[in-house]
Amino acid sequence: MRAVSKTAGMRWLLSRVLTPLDLRLRNTRFAPSTLGMHAPLCYLTTTGRRSGQPRTVPLLYLRLEDDGIAVVATNFGTEHHPAWALNLEAEPRARIDIEGVAYDVSARLASDEESATLWPKFDRVWPGYEKYREIAPREIKVFVLRAHHT
Question: What is the pLDDT of residues 137-148, one digit of tens each?
Answer without folding.
Answer: 999 999 999 997
